[in-house]
Amino acid sequence: MKKRSTLERQMLTYFGLIAAASLLITVEFIWAVRTAMFEAGSLTHTSAQDVTGNSIMMALGSLQNKAVLMGIVQAIVTLIVLIMFIRRITGPLKKMVEQSRAISEGDLSRTIQIRRRDELGLLGETINALTSNIQEIVAFGLSTDSSLQKPLEELRSRTADDPVCRQHLDEIEGRLSGFKSILEDFKLLPAPLAETEVDGKP
C-alpha cells in the first residue's frame, strides 16, 4: 500500500522553500555587506585627499538599495509560495463543502473522485463512504415499503368487516406512506455517477 503524504509534510515542504529563499537572500546580503566593508577598508589606506564623502555615500547607498531589493524579492517569493499552498488546500476543500451541502439536502447522487493521497483525500473517501451508507439505508427502506404493500393488501381484504383492524391498517399505511415520501425525497445515484474531482498530486 502506498504511503500517504500528509498535509503536515506538504506544509513543511512549502515553508522549507520559504526558508531556503530567505537563507539565500541573507547570504547575498551578508556578501554585499562584506564587500562594502572591504571597499571601506581600502579607502582608509588611501590618502585623506582621496577619501571623499561622495565615495562613502555611494557605497552606503548601494548597500541600502541591495537591502531593499532583497526584501522585495523575499516578500514576493513568500507570497507566491503561500498562494500556492493556500490554493492547494482551499480549492479541494471548497469542492467538498459544496458536495457535502448538496448531500445534506438529500442529493445522494454526488460523489467525490479522489486524486489525492493526504488527509483531504481521506476526507473525500469518508464523505463517499457516508453517502454510500445513507443510500443503502434509503434503498433498504424503499424496498421494505414495497415488500409490505402486498401483505397489507391481503390483511385489508381479510379484515374488511372489522372496523378496528381497518383503522389500524389505515394508520400503518399512513405511516408507511409518510416514511416513503421522506425516502423518495433523496436523490439516489444515477448512471453514470455524478462526480466531483478533487485534484492534487500524491
TrEMBL record:
PROSITE patterns xrefs: HAMP
CDD domains: HAMP
Membrane-crossing residue ranges in chain numbering: 12-33, 67-86
Sorted UniProt keywords: Membrane, Transmembrane, Transmembrane helix
Domain HAMP: from-to ranges: 87-139
One Pfam family recorded for the sequence: HAMP
GO cellular component, one term: membrane
One GO BP: signal transduction
Protein name: HAMP domain-containing protein
Organism: Desulfomonile tiedjei
